[in-house]
Amino acid sequence: MDGVPQGVPRVPEQRRPDSSPESPGSPGPAGPAAPVPLCFSVLGPVRAWRGDEPISTGSPQQRALLAALLLREGRTATAAELIDALWGEEPPSQALAALRTYASRLRKVLDAGALVSESGGYALRDLAEGALDLTVAQDLATGAEKARSAGDLCHARATLRSALALWDGETLAGVPGPYAEAQRVRLEEWRLQLLESRLDMDLEQGCHAEAVSELTALTAAHPLRERLRELLMLALYRSGRQAEALAVYADTRRLLADELGVDPRPGLSELQQRILRADPGLAEPSSPAPEPASLPVSPAQLPATVPDFTGRAAFVRELGDILASAERRVMAVSALAGIGGVGKTTLAVHVAHHARAAFPDGQLYVDLQGAGARTAEPETVLGSFLRALGTADSAIPDSLAERAALYRSVLAGRRVLVLLDNARDAAQIRPLLPGTDGCAALVTSRVRMVDLAGAHLVDLDVMSPDEALALFTRIVGEERVGSEREAALDVVAACGFLPLAIRIAASRLAARRTWTVSVLAAKLADERRRLDELQAGDLAVKATFELGYGQLEPAQARAFRLLGLADGPDVSLAAAAAVLDLPVDDTEDLLESLVDTSLLESAAPGRYRFHDLVRLYARACAERDEQPPGERAAALSRLLDFYLASAAGVYAIERPGDRLVDHLAVTDYPGLRFGDRHAAQDWLYAEAICLLACVRQSAGRPDTLSRAIDLLWAAHDLSESGANAREYEATAEALLDAARAGDLGRAEARALTTLVNVHHVSGRFERADQEAERAILLAQAADDLLPVCWARNARGIVALYQNRHEDGEEHLSRAIEHFRDLGDRPGEAAALCNLSRIHLATGRTQSAVALAREGIGIYDAMGNTMRGANARYALGLALTQSGELDDAAARLHEALEVFRDSRQRLWEGMSLFRLAEVDLAAGRPAQAAANAEVALTVLRGIGGEWRRGNVLTVLGRALSGIGQTGRAQVCWQEAAVIYEELRSPEAAEVRALLSPVRAA
């Protein structure tokens, strides 16, 4: 980082003892059992242990003597020096006698020979290596310095964290005397220097978002320490919070003038100017020293090259020359185009492997899925690339433009090769190009990218007859082809010299030792009409796959056809078993046999996927060959049943006693059973993309629409986790459109119920209320009471947010009645807890506490841990307002732990926000600021702008409480903009906070 001293601070004025093989006080020969070593700590209370057993260190003065001897690290201290250390300029009259008494008592509890008397003084000798925590911290700091000098920042950071973890509160806590006080100051200064060094490396590694919270608390604790202020300014700037960064400088300048009558040091002033100029050098960490080649930040993502790569010599030379020129030009880009199956990826991977030595900083690879219906989004790809290049998740911005800019910044000064495979068009790949000299990109696509400026375009055609025969021979074997050369030429000609078709045909032949080449040639001879189609666009790929499909056994062919029907990027073994209506073991045998044919890929253990073009071909086969035709719909219906039954199982294990599972559609095919809540959650989040794809696919058929809606309802945790919120919302909108198109009132009511929760989570309260109102009307007309309960409950909490307390109380009271009519005790508890918040907002604090406790009682009685966390959240709010702050914090911490464990990001962030409110009420503004900062990070991308405004308001109050009024004003100004855009009543409160500033 610019302007930051390199290296790790050494402990000031601290000498290490001379090592010697023997010392005067060495014990005699060891007995049968090795002695248990002594250990000591001074980085906190002065303590001693023999092994794991603590040793009494006596009175405060006796601990002071022990500390003085430990800190001399084996050197002798005279009696006069020790008396001065313990009592200073006014020792007691019997100080020498007291000193001897303390030494005698220590000698009794320590090992024989550990405390020696010499030259009228005392010394501690023969301590084991690492016996003193301070010595361990020194060694770790030295190791961190060496690692940093070598460019290994990850190891240096981890080592410094280990060193800092040795502190256990205040150094030499409770130890009296001037010597202890001086050492306390010295070691605390060293600790802060180590902490600053570690935070500096955090910023170099791109962890600025995490650092903001810690630096905010540290600047509150050490307001005059300018280095911490400088690091905070830089962390805020890199987190996109420029106004707050400048406000830190203004706060610091005012504080230094008021307290010390001085200006900020030049480095801090220079940083302010660079922020004002938006200096590009601040937008990314400075280039660290060269890192070891084995570090994970030098990615090696290229797929394995095929061992039987054949031909293409002219293209290999041409592309190799382009890549070799990357060092002398701004970004060498080569784009390979051709029909599917022509070997674009194989050639690109082969060339990339040959060029690896020219790109020592790594190679990136991605399949952009350009031929499929759902292509890879550039934002997602950039996130994956940034992580592979060593960028922390928290440092990766949200927007495409910001990710692309950070990507180019990370690549600046590096030599990296990027292979962008299977691209849709030039627009998809432009954000993924490095844009700097020394880097290069290889692109493959079915389209010729004439609109990709500066690219070297390569049109890849089919193989020559000689190359095609050579490839066939390498796969099948010389001994089988040599005697049937003419038949082999017939085979490759029938394949249209298309590499993928040749590979499939040759692999089939290689796997069947009883076949001859002539047998395969005869089979292909009957397919001349299909081979003619090979020359007409995408039909060429379809005809090529027909060769492999025609050689499948009947059970394999059925599996191939039916599995291709399902949307989603891949399929789990259990889901595939549902599609095929077969036992899992039989399904696995079939799928593995399809993997052997290259018609299916093994994505991961227990998961399988089609290449996008193979999936299209498989579906065409299903439409043509599957008999009876209804089997296609039956296969997808079984998949939907599987997901619905499994999701219902997840819901039931997470929410014992909840009646939703009793009101879902009945399934004919069973789902998975889970051993515990964590296994259930793991399955739900692992299957989220495929589950939502199944829901969308089922929306188009009236016979599956209702089950699809119920599946989305049962999986509504996905809407609150943040990871899948957007996909969940889009799916819910599609279901609602389908229900309305079919004029299906009951289905529409349930689809609206899922959307109400989405709008509530996203902070779109007016729309949530409108959708909930319509859901109630439709559900009542359909005599479907559960959506009425949920929608009433939702309208109640929305009314609370909109300060319509009378309406909210009416909705929640009716929801409680409806839940009781259904015997839905968890639903009743949810409404009670929401009613508690209405009472709280209208000044009925005691009844609010009682209602929340009633909700907790219901949840706890049913073992409903996750929903019980929501109840504890509500109780924490009520206890905060009633002034029972310790109990409020305890309940909120209990809720926070459950929300984190359950991956509920929305409620994790809201719990942190409420803890910040408790901290403010308890007079702990620094802790409040830390919790609010973390809440902002957790709620990124979820919860909506209204909740963000609430957190910013509390963060501003906390920052104001620790004297950082400039940052506080920035937070309030941002909150005011949010509230005014939303026309929220909270805008008046924030304007009042800002009014003194405006008046000034």
Beta-strand segment tally: 14
Q: What is the 3D shape?
A: globular
- How much of the residues is beta strand, in percent? 5-15%
Structural class: mainly alpha
Alpha-carbon Rg, integer: 35 Å
Regions with little confidence, pLDDT below 50 for 5+ residues: 1-6, 13-33, 286-296, 527-541
Describe this structure in words.
With 1000 residues, this protein is mainly alpha-helical. It contains 44 helices and 14 strands. The strands form four sheets. The chain has a five-stranded parallel β-sheet with strand order 8-9-10-7-11, sandwiched between helices. A hairpin with a 2-residue loop joins strand 2 (47-50) and strand 3. The longest helix is centred in the first third of the chain and has 27 residues, at 178-204. It starts with 37 loop residues before the first strand and ends with a helix.
Keywords:
1000 residues, five-stranded parallel β-sheet, 14 strands, 60% helix, 6% strand
Produce the secondary structure layout.
Layout: E1 38-41, E2 47-50, E3 53-55, H1 60-71, E4 77-78, H2 79-87, H3 95-109, E5 115-118, E6 121-124, H4 133-149, H5 153-164, H6 178-204, H7 208-221, H8 226-238, H9 242-259, H10 266-276, H11 313-324, E7 332-337, H12 344-354, E8 363-367, H13 378-388, H14 400-411, E9 417-423, H15 426-429, E10 440-445, E11 456-459, H16 465-476, H17 478-481, H18 485-494, H19 499-511, H20 517-525, H21 528-533, H22 539-550, H23 554-563, E12 571-572, H24 573-580, H25 584-596, E13 601-604, E14 607-609, H26 612-625, H27 630-654, H28 677-686, H29 688-698, H30 702-714, H31 725-741, H32 745-761, H33 765-781, H34 785-801, H35 805-822, H36 825-841, H37 845-862, H38 865-881, H39 885-901, H40 905-921, H41 925-938, H42 944-961, H43 965-982, H44 986-999
Parallel strand pairs: 7-10, 7-11, 8-9, 9-10
Antiparallel strand pairs: 1-2, 2-3, 4-6, 5-6, 12-14, 13-14
Helix pairs in contact: 1-3, 4-5, 5-6, 6-8, 7-8, 7-41, 8-9, 8-10, 9-10, 9-43, 11-12, 13-14, 16-18, 16-19, 18-20, 19-22, 22-26, 23-25, 23-26, 24-25, 24-27, 27-28, 27-29, 27-30, 29-30, 29-31, 30-31, 30-32, 31-32, 32-33, 32-34, 33-34, 34-35, 34-36, 35-36, 36-37, 36-38, 37-38, 38-39, 38-40, ...
